[in-house]
């Protein structure tokens, strides 16, 4: 009887530790997925001549998996509504959906093995400036299995120069923070 109790306790402890490790792994993957989405959005932003079009909703990233807004089914069958997930942090920013899709679609087939879904919104920074949008706020969310979610917010700005390697407008990160 004592051995049965000890065996059961050991089994429960092992199962709990396995779940904790899986949750940590998925959270870390979601964090890096949000970072990857920011990097992809920055590449597309560097190609945009006029960020006013972007903020007006007339321009989106090349990384999209359908119409903007609406519901998406995640890899584990859970649903998210991109319209209701729009950030609202009380700072009067008008967040626009910019890039969204499964992380596995970020690169050619088979290059990324991930069940994460990533979304990037853009807004002017600071909100309500004079229309000369040289600085933007980007917020990326990554959604994963079992309700895992991570967010990253980055402020980016044009440097005023052309990247000699890529041949497009150079953009740099001005600030970074992990969001909620």
Largest sheet: 5 strands, antiparallel
- How much helicity do the residues have? 25-40%
Count of extended strands:
7
Oligomer: single chain
Write down the overall mean pLDDT.
86
Quickly give the structural class: alpha+beta
Strand content: 25-35%
Shape: elongated
N-to-C SSE string, H for helix and E for strand: HHEEEEEEE
- C-alpha-based Rg, rounded: 20 Å
End-to-end CA span: 47 Å
In total, the number of domains comes to 1
Count of helical stretches = 2
Order of strands across the main sheet? 3-4-5-6-7
Sequence stretches where pLDDT stays below 50 over 5 or more residues: none
Could you walk me through the main structural features you see in this protein, from its secondary elements to its overall organization?
The chain is built from two helices and seven strands; from the N terminus they run ααβββββββ. 28% of the residues lie in helices and 32% in strands. The radius of gyration is 20 Å and the shape is elongated. The protein is α+β, with helices and mostly antiparallel strands. Strand 6 (149-163) and strand 7 form a beta hairpin. It has one domain. The chain has helices at 2-47, 51-55; strands spanning 71-73, 79-81, 96-102, 117-124, 135-143, 149-163, 168-179. The strands form two sheets. The protein has a five-stranded antiparallel sheet with strand order 3-4-5-6-7, covered by helices on one side. Strands 1-2 form a two-stranded antiparallel sheet.
């Amino acid at each position: 009887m004592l051995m049965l109790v000890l065996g059961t306790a050991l089994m429960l402890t092992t199962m709990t530790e396995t779940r904790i490790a899986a949750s940590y792994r998925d959270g870390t993957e979601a964090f890096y997925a949000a970072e990857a989405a920011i990097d992809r959005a920055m590449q597309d932003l560097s190609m945009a001549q006029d960020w006013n079009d972007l903020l007006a909703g007339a321009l989106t990233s090349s990384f999209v998996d359908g119409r903007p807004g609406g519901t998406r089914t995640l890899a584990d069958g859970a649903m998210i509504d991109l319209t209701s997930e729009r950030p609202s942090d009380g700072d009067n920013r008008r967040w626009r959906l910019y890039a969204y899709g499964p992380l596995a679609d970020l690169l050619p087939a088979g290059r990324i093995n991930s069940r994460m879904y990533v979304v990037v919104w853009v807004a002017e920074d600071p909100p309500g400036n004079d229309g000369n949008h040289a600085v933007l706020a980007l917020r990326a969310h990554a959604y994963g299995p079992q309700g895992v979610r991570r967010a990253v917010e980055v402020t980016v700005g044009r440097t005023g120069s052309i990247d000699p390697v890529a041949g497009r407008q150079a953009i740099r990160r001005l600030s970074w923070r992990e969001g909620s």
